[in-house]
Write a structure and sequence with these properties.
Elements lengths: L14 E7 L5 E9 L6 E4 L15 E7 L11 E8 L1 H6 L7 E5 L2 E6 L2 E6 L1 H5 L3 E2 L8 E6 L18 E9 L11 E4 L11 E7 L4 E7 L2 E3 L9 E4 L4 H11 L8
Parallel strand pairs: 9-14
Antiparallel strand pairs: 1-2, 1-4, 2-3, 3-6, 4-5, 5-6, 7-8, 10-11, 10-13, 11-12, 12-16, 13-14, 15-16
Amino acid sequence: MEGPVSPDGSTPPTSGKVFFIGSDLQPHWCTGTAVQTRYRNIVATAGHCLLDTEAPAGPLFKWVFVPGYSEGTTPFGLYVGKQAVVHYAFDDVRDHDRDYAFVNVYNGVVSSAPDVLTNVGRLADNVGGQGLEFNQPLAPTVDVLGYPAGPNPDGSLPYTGETLERSTGSTFAMKVTGLPADRPIGVDSPFTGEGSLGSSWLTHYTSDSGLGYLNGITISVSDTDGDDRYDAGVSPYFDGELYAIYRSAAGLWTGSIA
């Protein structure tokens, strides 16, 4: 199966930025990924890129996905979130083993004239969608795709957050202090945290198709060797409970907002 490619032909448009307003009433963003489903309308991201964990429980404001984002461009339009499914354990007690979300978005829109929005169709029809793997042994390697922007602990800024970055690394079981999770997974990756949260971990990914299987989502980063540079991403393990959340979201239709 051939997936669509970004205008520059080098990065998969299934990845993009998720923009929202936080409890501080300021704009923020994460990374999100279009996933294949019946209604072709789902974005996968970290749970805390959907639910406000800094204030009383509730969804973040003005949530929108921009697939294929690059240096301010919106090549495939804007996809506004309509509804989402998260695990009750993350919503209720902030269990980061369940820090994932599947968001149903309306059809994409573009501004065709001042104050006029034009419907450009369903998300996965326009950019394709990644598959999903769960209940699998740890993959030997995964490709991590995201928009890192923040600093390393030493203050260096290796990324701008304006273009999609890709790293390939080995996965491993890990323990993370300060993060309420019992069985997080690590991947060797130099991504910094800010902006890369929500990044996709893809198995069997090929550059030619831009497609693979989603098998992890970055919820944190870690400096495992203490050199003041992040060298690992952290994800929940994708098990049957994650698949149940995905299945619930996959059955929800959205339609047009234009």
